[in-house]
Amino acid sequence: MARSATTRQVHILEIVREQGFASIEQLAARFEVTQQTIRRLVNALCDQGLLRRVHGGVSLPVQNQNLAYSSRHRLNAEAKRRIAHATAKLIPDGTSLMIGLGTTPEYVAQALSRRRDLRVITNSLNVAAAFSHNPDVEITIAGGTLRPLDRDIIGEAAVHFFSGFRADFGIFGVGGVDADGSLLDFHVDEVKARQSIAANSRTSVLVADITKFGRNATVRGGHLDECHHLVIDDRLPAAFELSAQRYSGQIHTAGDARADFELLGEI
Q1: pLDDT in tens, 156-178
Q2: In terms of Cα–Cα distance, which of 136, 88, 138 is closest to 111?
């Protein structure tokens, strides 16, 4: 069976992240397709900000800021939906949740939006909006500085806000994950808020599609060691083989049998 374009794009990202550069000719030979097909696939990745066009091929982008929220929301949407569906199976009714900013946590909120007797604590207006039509959900929103384009709240007030609660689950995304397991984001305030969620939750859940693994971001804070669960949409890239082995008991791949979270009784 021929690989889907999405699967090919994931492997293209792996190759470029391992080598730093890949030529169109090399990729076409690697996947046994035409150069025109490869150009179409890498152009889509470049348009999403995941790769950068250079003469003769593609390389990693130079990133010091994230993509616009609307672009990120559309990016890998199906993968994020599967991650959200799998994560929702981890969360029973009648629990308290801290949910962080970002598009994948918003997808999780949407997957949980019809649940009963939840208390949601968040610094994301998108998350709050996802629950706002359900009277069985109590929503508490952080104060602080609003980022209008992202529709989230950051700053020291938002960081301290989370420390006033103790939630059953903390659900958060990241801008990227480094090969050593470090969690990366694009702004210090994003890192501080995410770390406050993890520190003030009994069970921390990182939700990230696999394009985040090896993705460049400039601010480091937190580590995979601190995550009780990691919900992803596919196998980790080859550069993360050691992480895949080390965290095998914590990794849940959306769509496989373990995504049903038989570990739920152990939490």
Answers
A1: 999 999 999 999 999 999 999 99
A2: 88
